[in-house]
Specification:
elongated; 60 residues
């Protein structure tokens, strides 16, 4: 269309120019890793806060 290559061909050419990925230094889904770690920390902290609130309520 309009004298340009299709987007698939342009993406394939751009991908071919990238250097090969190094083993062990690449994580495909970095945003997913950060979200997963955030959720784990959030759940653990939430449970700890809930534990302390229940302990404080039972002291009276």
């Amino acid at each position: 269309m309009f004298g340009r290559k299709p987007i698939e061909e342009r993406l394939a050419e751009r991908r071919a120019q990238l250097p090969p990925l190094k083993e062990g230094e690449h994580f495909e889904h970095a945003p997913a890793k950060f979200i997963f770690i955030f959720l784990i920390v959030f759940v653990v902290l939430g449970h700890l806060v809930g534990l302390f609130v229940l302990m404080a309520l039972n002291l009276h």
